[in-house]
Amino acid sequence: MKLAKFGGSSLASGEQIRKVFGIVKSDPLRKIVVVSAPGKRFESDIKVTDLLDAYYQDYKNGKNLVPIQTTLLDRFEEICDELELSELKQFLSEKVISLALLNLHNRFVYDKFLSTGEECSALIVSSYFKKNGLNAKFLSPKDAGILVSSDPCEAKLLPIAYNKIAGLVKYPEILIIPGFYGATLNGEVCTFSRGGSDITGAILAAGVKAEMYENFTDVDGIYSVNPNVVENPVIIEEVTYREMRELSFAGFSVLHEEALIPAARAGVPMLLKNTNHPELPGTQIVPNWTIDMPVVGIASSRGYVIIKITKYMLYRDISFGRRFFEILEKLGIRFEAITTGIDDMSILVRDKYLSAPIQEALSDDLKEILQVDDIVIVKNLAVVTAVSEEIRQQTHITGRATLALARKNIKIETLMQGASEVSLLFIVKEEVENETVRSLYEEFFED
Ligand SMILES: Nc1ncnc2c1ncn2[C@@H]1O[C@H](COP(=O)(O)OP(=O)(O)O)[C@@H](O)[C@H]1O
Ligand SMILES: N[C@@H](CC(=O)OP(=O)(O)O)C(=O)O
């Protein structure tokens, strides 16, 4: 059995849904289909999930809801018209309108709004499949057994869920399951973080021990670098789960970083393919590499800050680390990397965690509680991450990378090896982010 997940770009219009139908029909092993909400049809278009977000904001702020409801209903109506599913229009319209009756004080109200895109999408796909002769069945995430924690917009799968999910193999129909959300033990709708349909796909593929998790999107494979920075970059033929997790976390938005672990643990291989060109091989995500590459991919992300603290003889104070982390926890600051020395400690954080009041509270606590001598906050940084399993084995990769940057006069603010040992992090000023990516790409991929 294979699990096929189709992203928003594959469900954006009736024409795209016809392609999805063709793909599912062409392989009888594709027994579970996970769908996202309709995505963008063209560059300036708005994804249905973003429209639902706007709908929620208008509802919360007491605004006139007619314009946003009309935009949403038009999207669904257009798809239904293209697929000749007129019988579904009224049902979907009621679903969308009834969101404006929800209790705003419920913790999961925003999740319910956002999840409606995937729910409607799965209803459309299952109706179209049935109408065209496929034995398909809509199954809600709750009925599929996707039981999740009660963390609005950040659901985590409850381990007990896997028992029920395993039972999905018994269905004779092709199951069409909405991605992106699950049900809490109290039956509330709770979504994963944005882009989370990939997580649903991975969980279900792991739960039924699928022979393959196919992730269909709008590119021919995973590019070795952001295609907006380097024109026509090389497509990665094969990447390990660990490499891909690092790349996703470091900026490759093509796959959600939380979608790798469930599939990896269950040993389910993944294949990323293009809905518009399903005949192409795509990118395989595998447990162990078979192709030697000094660097598999280069990801980058901006909006970082380094907090440097200095305290004379810091390393002798055995409670310093604990007290420092307690301060970070209290202020809700997540850090991504840390280095320490005799008198210094530096942490890398995203600037979204460091608003002006939080920064002030952090400075006060560091001075009062930890009595640090100095605090320096360096802003507007980008992290460029080169990833490969080979980095652990071959020391010359770091040398080649730093030399390539030195040749272009690019100053590295800080260089770190990721704790997973499959990544090298080059922290640079935001203004040289793209140049850093291009220089590393030239060094490792050109010729
Ligand atoms: N390294 C990369 N390789 C491929 N695509 C990438 C990469 N980095 C970013 N992307 C973007 O990810 C998009 C696909 O992801 P996403 O928009 O979530 O698709 P979907 O709607 O199918 O889930 C591509 O269209 C591309 O613009
Ligand atoms: N529709 C949700 C979940 C998702 O995974 O979407 P997509 O497959 O289009 O990235 C979102 O936009 O966040």
TrEMBL record:
Chain positions recorded as ATP binding sites: 5-8, 217-218, 223
Residue ranges constituting the Aspartate/glutamate/uridylate kinase domain according to the UniProt record: 3-274
GO BP terms, alphabetized: diaminopimelate biosynthetic process; homoserine biosynthetic process; lysine biosynthetic process via diaminopimelate; threonine biosynthetic process
Domain Aspartokinase ACT: 384-444
EC number assigned by the record: 2.7.2.4
A Pfam cross-reference name: ACT_9
Binding site for substrate: 49, 118
PROSITE patterns in alphabetical order: ASPARTOKINASE
Coiled coil: none
Pathway(s) it belongs to: Amino-acid biosynthesis; L-methionine biosynthesis via de novo pathway; L-homoserine from L-aspartate: step 1/3; Amino-acid biosynthesis; L-lysine biosynthesis via DAP pathway; (S)-tetrahydrodipicolinate from L-aspartate: step 1/4; Amino-acid biosynthesis; L-threonine biosynthesis; L-threonine from L-aspartate: step 1/5
InterPro entries from the UniProt entry: AceGlu_kinase-like_sf, ACT-like_dom_sf, ACT_Aspartokinase, Asp/Glu/Uridylate_kinase, Asp_kin_monofn, Asp_kinase, Aspartate_kinase_CS
SUPFAM superfamilies in alphabetical order: ACT-like, Carbamate kinase-like
Reaction catalysed by this enzyme: L-aspartate + ATP = 4-phospho-L-aspartate + ADP
Keyword Nucleotide-binding: yes
Record GO terms (molecular function): aspartate kinase activity; ATP binding
GO cellular component assignments: cytosol
Keywords: Amino-acid biosynthesis, ATP-binding, Diaminopimelate biosynthesis, Kinase, Nucleotide-binding, Transferase
Keyword set includes Phosphoprotein: no
Residue ranges crossing the lipid bilayer per the database entry: none
Family: Belongs to the aspartokinase family.
Job of this protein: Catalyzes the phosphorylation of the beta-carboxyl group of aspartic acid with ATP to yield 4-phospho-L-aspartate, which is involved in the branched biosynthetic pathway leading to the biosynthesis of amino acids threonine, isoleucine and methionine.
PANTHER family: ASPARTATE KINASE, ASPARTOKINASE 3
Protein name, entry field: Aspartokinase
Origin species: Lactovum miscens
